[in-house]
Design a protein that fits this description.
Length: 233
């Protein structure tokens, strides 16, 4: 049993992805709120840049979303080597998160090809965000995980809007890319709507995992003291 209030779900069951608590929030201190609000404001700039086109926004979002897991996993990996100790599965959990986010991007690349100016934006944003998050994780891992948790909440909200437009017929519900069917073991007749559902569920899991990691550290514990929730895919 986890010592906190998180409830993780991993298995694939048709429609089970609609059962997450997509509106969950976690208590944050002033520093977290200040930093997160600025990052959320930046995310909203990305939305405006994408001109409210969900797939454009998703492609831009996923190029950034895959950074925190890789940075956190890398730093925990080197820490484990320095201290000759286990990580409690957190290295694998964070690297798994990074790979999962990358697969979101690869999926959308089968639906949309970014323009040159979007690629230029990604190049610049990723360079800044990677280094900023690296320094933030070195300074305060609990702050870094909390920020990621809130950014994942924004991702959940974005994919919820994406899904709503697909269900209303605002966007065409095209067949699911083959890469998505293989990766999530979806039925062969799945559509983009099914893909957005599973991606939203992934984002909800990332949100909970990062808030959980921050909660552990906020209570004076180390991540290795509590097993990481892994293997959700």
């Amino acid at each position: 049993m986890y010592p906190f209030f998180w409830d993780f779900r991993y298995e694939f069951i048709p429609m089970c992805y609609d059962h997450f608590d997509f509106g969950r929030n976690s208590v944050a201190n002033f520093a977290t709120v200040f930093v997160t609000r600025n990052l959320v404001a930046f995310a909203q700039i990305l939305v405006a840049f994408a001109q409210k086109k969900h797939i454009h926004h998703a492609v831009l979002l996923e190029t950034v979303a895959a950074v925190p897991g890789m940075v956190g996993g890398m730093l925990l990996h080197t820490k484990s080597l320095r201290r000759f100790e286990q990580s409690g599965g957190w290295i694998k959990a964070l690297l798994e998160e990074a790979e999962n986010e990358r697969m979101h991007l690869m999926t959308f690349m089968d639906v949309y090809e970014p323009k040159w100016h979007e690629r230029a934006l990604v190049f610049a944003v990723q360079g800044v965000f990677f280094n900023a998050y690296f320094l933030a994780y070195l300074a305060s891992p609990k702050l870094a995980h909390r920020i990621t948790g809130y950014l994942e909440e924004e991702a959940v909200n974005s994919y919820t809007e994406f899904l709503n437009d697909l269900e209303k017929g605002v966007m065409e519900d095209v067949p699911a890319p083959a890469i998505a069917i293989d990766y999530w073991c979806l039925p062969k007749n799945s559509t983009l709507k099914d893909v957005v559902r599973v991606i939203r569920a992934d984002e909800a899991h990332h949100r909970d995992l990062n808030h959980y990691a921050s909660d552990i550290q906020c209570q004076g514990h180390e991540l290795k003291e509590y097993p990481a929730p892994i293997g959700y895919h």
